[in-house]
Amino acid sequence: MFQPLSVFLGLRYTKAKRDNHFISFISLASVIGIALGLTVLITVLSLMNGYESGMRDRYLSMFSHITVFDSDWNLKQWESRRKQVLEAEHVKAVAPFIEKQVMLKEGNKVRATFLQAIQPEYEKDLGTINQHLSQSDSLDKLKAGEYNIILGVTLAEKLGVKVGDSITLLSLSPETLGVSSEQSNSSSPILKDFTIIDTFKVDMQVYDSGYAYVHLQDAIDLFETKGVV
Questions:
Q1: Residue of 84, 87, 198 whose CA lies nearest to 140
Q2: What does the pLDDT look like over 130-148, one tens digit per residue?
């Protein structure tokens, strides 16, 4: 039977005669060392590839792949624009949103937060936030005019709040949403109480400790965007 030279030499020295036990031991130790080294290397690479893939999928699944806007990150008449974008090939879902950095306050605890204002019925088809909620039907409870809010689980822990509690949102004037202070009714800071209806956990610190979700219409009314998203 044909036998490669490397296999022949390996077997020759692992089966050394009685007077060459030291050579046999060194050969066996070398084989075991190489086998262990390769096993560790393959295991580590597999874990790293799995971790990278999992993190990438979680990160990309939380937001859309493309953001459409007119100028200064603003978009007017989003209903008609949404219909136009949906007609494009390969587009699976389209949803309007408002993102704004705000402060959330409970007692003496204050945390900077990225506020995501969404249209729940459209957001379900776009991202995976509904898969990370502690209650699967929480997006349905985000109704316009009720000023409900969903917090990242770490953010809720840092603020010391739970589902059912009230929390205060603080924000500057609406200028950053494309509405100047001259157009808005007031340029004074915005304060509004929201009711926490659920928390979400993505197992990514950037989301769990820094994001909150509210209904799109509540944000439009609160920040006086005049329908701009």
A1: 198
A2: 888 998 888 989 999 999 9
